[in-house]
Design a protein that fits this description.
mainly alpha; rod-shaped; transmembrane; membrane; transmembrane helix
C-alpha cells in the first residue's frame, strides 16, 4: 500500500473510532441501567416502562452487555488495524500526518 493510501485508511479509522467511542456510551448506559433496575427491584422489574419477570430482565441486561462487548471488540480490532497501518509508514511524516497519528493514539 502506498503512503497516501495508508494515511487515507488511518483517517477513516480515526473517524470510525471517534464514532464508536460515542456509540459505546449507549450500551454502557443500558448495562448500568439494567443492573441498577435489577438491584433495586423485586420479582417484577421495570425496564423502559415495560414490566419483566426478574429472569427476563436478567436476560435483557445480558443482551445489553453482549452488545457492549461487541462494540468493544470492534473498537479493539480497529485499534489493531491502526497499529498495523502506522507500522507500514516509513520516512518523514508531515505535520498533519503526525497529528493524525496522535489522534489515533488517543483512542487507546
Amino acid at each position: 500500500m502506498s503512503h497516501q493510501e495508508v494515511i487515507h485508511q488511518l483517517r477513516g479509522l480515526v473517524r470510525r473510532l471517534r464514532l464508536l467511542s460515542v456509540l459505546q456510551l449507549i450500551p454502557d448506559t443500558l448495562v448500568i441501567y439494567g443492573i441498577l433496575q435489577l438491584a433495586f427491584s423485586g420479582q417484577i422489574v421495570t425496564l423502559f416502562n415495560a414490566s419483566f419477570a426478574r429472569s427476563q430482565a436478567v436476560l435483557v441486561t445480558a443482551l445489553f452487555a453482549l452488545i457492549d462487548l461487541c462494540v468493544t471488540g470492534i473498537r479493539y480490532n480497529d485499534r489493531l488495524t491502526g497499529k498495523r497501518l502506522i507500522g507500514q509508514l516509513s520516512g518523514r511524516l508531515t505535520t498533519p500526518e503526525a497529528e493524525l497519528i496522535k489522534q489515533f493514539e488517543r483512542f487507546k
